[in-house]
Amino acid sequence: MNPHPPGSAGNSAKLPAVPVQFDRSWYDDLEAKLNKGGPWDDWKLFNLAGQAEAASLVTSFEDMLCLKHLPEEQVTPLPHQTETARKVLFEMRGRAILADEVGLGKTIEAGLILKEYIVRGLVRKVLILVPASLVLQWVRELNQKFAIPAVAQKKEYSWQNDVVVASMDTAKRDPHKEILLGNEYDMVIVDEAHKLKNKKTTNYQFMLKLRKKYCLLLTATPVQNDLSELFNLITLLKPGQLGGQNDFASNFVFDKRIPKNESQLKGELAKIMIRNRRGDGELEFTKRIVKNIHVELSPEEMKLYDGVTSFVKDQYHAAGGDLNSMLSLVTLQREVCSSRDAVFVTLVNLSKKLAPDSPLRDKIWDLVGIIKTIKANSKAEKAMELIRGMDDKVIVFTEYRATQEYLLNYFRDRNMTAVPYRGGMNRGKKDWMMDLFRGRAQVMIATEAGGEGINLQFCHQMINFDLPWNPMRVEQRIGRVHRLGQQNDVQIYNLSTKGTIEEHILNLLHEKINMFEMVIGQLDVILERFEKSDSLEKSLYKILLESGSNDEIASRVDSLGQSLHSIRTELDESGENSAQNSRLQQLLEVDEA
Amino acid sequence: MTMTQDQIRQYVLTYLETTECQFLEKSPYHVTVKLSPRADKDLTNRPYYWGFIERTGVEPETMTFSFIFDAERHKQLEDQKASSQREPSPQEDTILGRHFGAVRPLPILGPGRIQREEMHFGSPRLKQIFAAARQGGRSVYLFEDPGPRQRSTLLPAAYEPWLGVRLKVEFSCDMKREELHFIGVSLRTGQIDTEFHTRVDGKILVPRMPENMHISPTRLSLDQGRQLVEQTINEKVQACDTTWADEARERLNEELALIDAYYKDLLQDPDEERKQAVMEQYESRRGEIRWQYEPRIVVSALGSGIFHLRSPLGTDIDRSR
Fold first, then answer.
1. Nearest one of B14, B8, B199, B212 to B117, comparing CA atoms
2. Which residue has the higher pLDDT, A412 or B109?
3. Position B264 in a domain
4. Tens-place pLDDT, residues A42-92
């Protein structure tokens, strides 16, 4: 597409006329047909061809055409997204860093830009490099929202397609690397481009060698620790924009974390980077309103909880405190806070694995005996009451399949339509469930929150039937509902059972790190710092298994909360006060000129 | 530029008629057709099937399509139809039904299946029809219909052969603008018409030479005709505003200067091997930038043909003499 310009005009100053190339294939075609006496084409089709061409004609250099080419109803770009695309196209000339904060739609912006170039016939061959987990999501979005025929790279021959989405890790390896470096790309897009900050990595070296006309780098964190990260990113796009390495160091760097000549540097950055922030103009998110609901367990349920707890603890001590072999047992402990059904399934599976004469079997059957005595699920009753009371669409999240099944039954028996949603469903079924929820069901019961695709802006009530112990999963759940386009404040109900570990966890997440009301994107940073040694989930397991009493659990969870809290305060301060980080971050803020 | 839904409808209908598809249903908001073999080959993307049909000589089974031009209105129409026709069927209590409420009907596969397509500007199916029209309408050989009176008169009348070429001019740098031109050259007189569409619009053109007509001898060869077309378009293009190209070159030079500044020091590397690597990078960056910004103009033809037009009365004198 758009072959390289002929000849070498180079830097020569005075302007020769722009060279005109004539494509003469029509002439050969016509002459051959005249000699053979046909076959001739239809006059009507000749005219239709003309109309098609007239309708798709690019009539002006600077006019966004792509919006007219988008499938209606699939996507309506927000004003900041269209504005960003316009800037990249007409001011930055197709080479830019898109650095919006998380959740503002960098993918949409990139899609708009790509579409515009395709519509104008300036781009045909496209390479999109993203983390492996996002490949399919990109392919889907480009196809559905932009009608761009993107394919996921699967085999070597996939590279022949015009628009290919692949993971960086695949692309930089042989034999793929050779193929890609031998090619020329009209456009290259890199998602999560902060992985290109270090010059020495193979990622970076690979990108340097790749030949490209237009290039977009997407990242929410273009600079984190060191100014040179920014320099390296920009060098991939436009070497020299900040001068040579030495110029940059002497002009703009005071210390690796402290820039100098900031306003000038900002000016240079504005030529190549766009960062939309939450809270700029229209991009205000609605509030999150959290209500914790403490559910009193029935005596039978409490008995089961205690039974499971002591069973798990015994096993832990018997195994000599080895945490890794205990994971399935800890699951039991979590499931017992959700529903007896979930515990039952795990117990049965556990007993199947045991030797027929194992003494554990008896213990397990004792527990099953307790399960049988439980007649009602206190949480389900509470949830039902809540849902009846709100008379509005609501999504219920649980971690367990068995609980999901139970709730579906429970609600149906009480004349409430609920639809399921889980990770194992294929794409079509997921979409169908979404449609049903939107159209005719009041309740959706979901086990999966991760992965794109469930966008539930039309619903603003959610119930956490049980809480994941991994705060990121909680955040993912909330993110399904609390996202751009949500018009209402989001109501979050957390169900927790009194006198159980769940109470402590909720206390930790809610009181200590206040995660339910946290700014999107903040949690990752806190966890990243905290989990240098062990994941939060694992720390919780340990507390649970090693503590002798409820009070001990409480105090240890409390100290965990303290350390999370102090990380948070530290981060907040560094965001606002500390000279170092703030000056780095301030670079990314645009002054209203 | 774009098309309204109504224009799209007109366009698709014309295409379907021209390719002789069989119309099964038609409303202002949709049309259902059984494709003709030609349209099936254009649109359904199944070359193996058609290869098989052609080799074995079996009767082909073409696909049936519903093209929807106004999804909302069409749905209203369908709903009306459905509610007036169907008596309420008892709610079936299937297992799925118990789970999810009403169950969607399963899609029908195989023959009898009607593929549903919503047509809007930019939809892949419409683009495919565009492409089919371009592919199927590249070169024509046509005669102006002289009307019924000519057949009964005694004097044969003459046709003037014209070479008509529809051209697209692309002005590109990192951005792009396009123009369409339809240029005609009389192969008898060398007369040039830069608005050839106004000359042929409204005339009835037929593929076979009507009776009682003859073609005036040509003076210009086809190649001379081509040269005149190219010369004409070249003049037009050169007369265009060149600000865009000047600005593009300015941007190009700025970018090249930046690159030079960046690599200046690096190219002084005493290590020969490293220097070589840097040199390569430098050249490829410069190449990319020129590829991106350097202005260029490409002229290509979308279609061409020989048009035998009746000389307007009274001008049938050879003016070039």
1. B8
2. A412
3. yes
4. 888 888 888 888 888 888 888 888 888 887 666 788 888 899 999 999 999
Alpha-carbon gap, residue B230 to B209, rounded angstroms: 29
Closest chain B C-alpha to A114 CA, distance in angstroms: 13
- Residue B114: what are its φ and ψ, rounded to 5°? -110, 115
Question: Rounded mean pLDDT of A296-312?
Answer: 87
CB-based contact (8 Å) between A32 and chain B? Answer: no
Considering the domain architecture, whether residues B129 and B198 belong to the same structural domain is answered as no
Chain B window 57-76: which residues touch A at a Cβ cutoff of 8 Å? Answer: none
- Span A288-295+375-586: which CATH code? 3.40.50.300
Most B CBs within 10 Å: which of A53, A241, A429, A434, as the mutation test of the B interface?
Answer: A53
Residues, chain A, total?
Answer: 593
Q: Is beta strand B30-34 parallel, antiparallel or unpaired with respect to B22-27?
A: antiparallel
DSSP string, A182-246: TS-EEEEEESSGGGG--TTSHHHHHHHH--EEEEEEE-S-S-SS-HHHHHHHHHHH-TBTTBSHH
Fold classification of A71-274 is: Rossmann fold (3.40.50)
Q: Distance, in angstroms, between A29 CA and closest chain B CA? A: 8
Chain A residues in contact with B298 by the CB 8 A cut-off are 20-21, 23
Kindly report the pTM of this predicted structure. 0.76
pLDDT tier at A355 (50, 70, 90 boundaries)? confident
Q: Give the angle subtended at the CA of A70 by the CAs of A68 and A75, to the nearest 5°.
A: 120
Q: What is the DSSP letter of B195?
A: B
Question: Which has the closest alpha carbon to A121: B56, B178, B115?
Answer: B178
**CA nearest A214: which of A147, A115, A144?**
A115
- The answer on B230 and B120 residing in a single domain is no
A1 has a chain B CB within 8 A of its CB? no
Q: Choose the mutation target among B167, B233, B288 for the interface with A, i.e. most A CBs under 10 Å.
A: B288
